[in-house]
Amino acid sequence: AEDPKRRVLKDVFGFDDFRPGQADVMDALLAGRHVLAVMPTGAGKSLCYQVPALVLGGLTIVVSPLVALMQDQVAALRLAGVAADTINSSIDREANVAAWRRVAAGQTRLLYLAPERLMTERMLDALARLDVSLIAVDEAHCISQWGPAFRREYEDLSRLRGIFPNVPIIALTATADESTRTDIEARLFAERVETLVLGFDRPNIKLGIEAKQDSKRQLLRFVERHPGRSGIVYCLSRKKTEEMAAFLEKNGVTALAYHAGMSKDARDANQNAFMTLSGVVMVATIAFGMGIDKPDVAYVFHTDMPGSLEAYYQEIGRAGRDGREAEAHMLFGLGDIRMRRLFIDDEDAPPEHKRRSHGRLDTLIGYCETAQCRRQVLLGYFGEEASPCGNCDTCLDQAPRADGGMEARIILAA
Ligand code: ADP
Ligand code: MG
Ligand code: ZN
Question: Start and end of every Helicase C-terminal domain (predicted)?
């Protein structure tokens, strides 16, 4: 069965992939946990509660500090066909009354309110009688006196957990410093809160791309540089996972295959072996990975190019969760581009969708072909600025050169 949050992402918002961290945040909320999500600006924090709001049904209350921001969000949601409302001082009484009628009738999925509007006894009484599924506190750093934008009205929000004891609360902010975070947790959440700090950078993962020549030999050479370590190898086709695994085995590497064409028992057995033993190389299609949280994966090796930079980021993110040195290595050739283009063209999808898919593919190709620091390109795509990282192939390859490429790049980037 299709993941309901993914269906909403696609059908309502028109996106094919989650941005880094979004799926984790949503899963925690959908499991009924409180969440503090710290994600950079532009990361897509809004979707982290908008999608669960639609999956859960009922009413989601969104607290947002700025009226203009609320109006924008409500307008955007309505364009996407979502029943969103706001009650605020900038719209006339009649419109506010009409909005409240929709809320009270259970027609509204997301209701945007400023904190001072929400925290009146009348509003709270009325809301407590409705089917509230989720409460989202956007720009949650405003609750903290340590934060850069303290707002007195936000302080009162600490009463929410008592008034809606069974409703999961998500607090969202881009302000990541420790004291602000601790302060938000203490004020907004009574019991355990799951704090997810999701900067996009994973500096311990070395990024590399290699021209594809003889995939098998290239893979073997790479794997042999990490003896005894666990790794994930992604292949485009089921057949290839089996061939590659067999080839590694023949060369003395413990390798297992994983793809959706295998029986459930076989898949489970291989997954178990990978999770519990160390030094197993899992050669898999993208069917493998969802919810895999093995801390000591030393590398993710792509024998073929994925379909988007989002997918690539998600896949390489399975390496180095223990914070130790890890590697993301991809083989890349013209054949990959051709294959991916064909995939998109052959898809039974509207032209607009195909156009978007080609655009996302182009972004990934740009990443593969860049002469710039790869991490800069990757993070830049997710809206994060970075200096040359010194831990990707383009940074490292150019370091010793006499033309001063690296130095020039640092100077130019400064
Ligand atoms: P934040 O609040 O974290 O700064 P927003 O929620 O305003 O970020 O989202 C920033 C932009 O990213 C929006 O234009 C949004 O539509 C877009 N976005 C969010 N999630 C995705 C996604 N999964 N795929 C593509 N674009 C996304
Ligand atoms: Mg935001
Ligand atoms: Zn770099």
Answer: 215-365
Structure tokens at 181: 């975070």
SS3 category, 257: strand
pTM: 0.67
Which structure tokens are listed for 88? Answer: 């605020």
Question: Residue 67 class from Cβ within 10 Å (0-12 exposed, 13-18 middle, 19+ buried)?
Answer: middle
Sign of CA dihedral 59, 61, 67, 73: negative
Q: Determine the Cα–Cα distance for residues 347 and 307; give it in Å rounded to an integer.
A: 13
Taking Cα atoms as reference points, which of 335, 52, 396, 410 lies closest to residue 206?
396
Which residues partner with 284 through β-bridges? 234, 258
- Ligand 1 pocket by Cβ (under 6 Å): 15, 17-19, 22, 39, 41-47
**Residues 345-403 pLDDT 10s:** 998 888 988 998 999 999 999 999 999 999 999 988 877 788 999 999 999 997 654 44
Q: Kindly give the distance from the C-alpha atom of residue 302 to the centroid of ligand 2, in angstroms, as a whole number.
A: 33
| d(C-alpha 187, C-alpha 79), whole Å | 35
Residue 377, both tokens: 């390109």
The b-or-e profile of 192-204 (16+ CB within 10 A means b, else e) is ebbbbebbbebee
ipTM over 0.90: yes
Task: State the Cα–Cα distance between residues 215 and 236, nearest whole angstrom.
Answer: 12
Distance 141 CA to ligand 2 centre (A): 12
- Kindly state the tokens that stand for 300: 């993710």
Instruction: Please give the structure tokens belonging to residue 129.
Output: 């009688």
Cα of 46 to ligand 2 centre, how many Å?
6
Q: Are 378 and 313 in contact (CB under 8 A)?
A: yes
